[in-house]
Design a protein that fits this description.
By secondary structure, the chain is mostly helical. The chain is about 70% helix and about 0% strand. About 20% of the residues are buried.
Length: about 210
């Protein structure tokens, strides 16, 4: 808040009036400039801090995503092998194979820094192109998280066909009808896992662009 005080002495004539007026004007302009400068410095500090928080959050997410992406080929192979055996059992064939198991790696991807930057409106102080890169990365991340949740649900559906005694897929002990029901669930799970891999590949590129800033 700026205060303007009355002159300490009486104003004598027009000349004194304009001198006093110019003094007040100059003082106000200097004060406003200083205030604007302080606020600009504060905004720059907020922007730098927010950008670093966003990049660090995406770096952490990228590392977690990389672990999941590295495990997907093995998971796809296990699903495909189990699907092949289930299809054979659904046709009434004897399946000579050890009891099967499946694994699924889950990525925990955070967006706290993005939520904070949006809520505090610090995004307004950032370069528009950089904000777009962050937004694209988090948007793709949101799609991946939703798909990951759906895939996990499908895995749980597939695991409902496990033997409750041994907690494995005992295909030879299944009836062809049970195996046919299992085939449907395994196919759906495999499609979801492939979609996860495709979106994850795009997301890795979005992460790189947002973190690198270009």
């Amino acid at each position: 808040m700026l205060d303007v005080h009355a002159p300490e002495h009486r104003i004598h004539g027009v000349r004194d009036f304009f001198v006093h007026l110019l003094t007040i004007t100059a003082g106000l302009l200097i004060a406003l400039a200083l205030e604007a400068g302080v606020e600009a410095m504060h905004h720059r500090h907020q922007r730098r801090e927010a950008e670093e928080n966003l990049r660090q959050e995406l770096r952490d997410n990228a590392r977690d995503l990389a672990k999941v992406m590295a495990s997907i080929p093995k998971e796809r192979k296990a699903l495909s092998q189990l699907l092949q055996l289930a299809q054979e059992r659904a046709q009434g064939k004897t399946v000579v194979a050890p009891p099967q198991q499946l694994g699924f790696n889950f990525a925990t991807l955070h967006r706290a820094a993005w939520g904070t930057a949006s809520a505090t409106e610090v995004l307004n102080y950032m370069d528009y192109a950089q904000v777009q890169r962050f937004a694209e990365a988090y948007e793709m991340q949101q799609q991946f998280v939703a798909l990951q949740q759906a895939t996990l649900k499908d895995y749980l559906e597939a695991h409902s066909h496990m033997s409750l005694d041994a907690l494995v897929f005992d295909l030879q002990g299944m009836t062809p009808q049970d195996a046919a029901a299992m085939v449907i669930d395994l196919r759906h799970t495999l499609v979801q896992l492939v979609a996860m891999q495709e979106i994850g590949t795009v997301m890795e590129l979005d992460y790189d662009r947002a973190i690198g800033g270009h």
